[in-house]
Design brief:
It comes from Mucilaginibacter rubeus. Pfam families: FUR (PF01475). Keywords: DNA-binding, Iron, Metal-binding, Repressor, Transcription, Transcription regulation, Zinc. GO terms for molecular function: DNA-binding transcription factor activity; transcription cis-regulatory region binding; zinc ion binding. This is Transcriptional repressor. By secondary structure, this protein is an alpha+beta fold. It has a single domain, classed as Arc Repressor Mutant, subunit A. The chain contains five helices and six strands. The strands form two sheets. The chain has a three-stranded antiparallel sheet. Strands 5-4-6 form a three-stranded mixed sheet, with no helix packed on it. The longest helix has 15 residues.
Length: 148
């Protein structure tokens, strides 16, 4: 039942952003929503053998342009992708949240529920968005470090 509900949600999401409902797009959305971390294109390729590299690149590019996903870089400079909030669109992304890079497992986490302080820029600066990074150990790696 949950999988059917998710597919309907993904189909609605593609309709909302005026994208065709193709099996590869639905699979990418399903895969990304099942993960608790941002995911790189190479990681998605290794998980989704039936979608070729070019098709996956085009899907990720279209999703980013439409405001379905956002790009965040890990400590090595590799682009990772995470689902956007429901109020993002192609003209207005709202992914201003903390991105946490774990120095141990190398996962990138979107910490959406933190209350971030307002950023007051000097006069004349016009922000179009911002990215905030933190690095350290995620809860899983912290527990492993304590046990050692």
């Amino acid at each position: 039942m949950t999988q059917t509900r998710d597919i309907h949600h993904f189909e609605h999401l593609l309709d909302k952003h005026h994208l065709k409902k193709t099996a590869p797009r639905l699979r990418v959305l399903s895969m990304m929503s099942s993960r608790h971390t941002a995911t790189s294109q190479p990681d998605l390729e290794s998980l989704m053998h039936d979608i070729d590299r070019v098709t996956l690149y085009r899907i990720l590019n279209a999703f980013e342009e439409k405001g379905i996903i956002h790009k965040v870089f890990d400590l090595d400079g590799t682009a990772n992708y995470a689902l956007c909030s429901s109020n993002c669109n192609e003209h207005d992304h709202h992914d201003e949240h903390l991105h946490f890079n774990c120095t141990q497992c190398k996962n990138v986490y979107c910490l959406n529920d933190l209350n971030l302080p307002a950023i007051n820029l000097p006069v004349g600066f016009e922000p179009h968005g911002f990215t905030l990074y933190a690095q350290g150990l995620c809860p899983k790696c912290s527990k492993k470090a304590v046990k050692k």
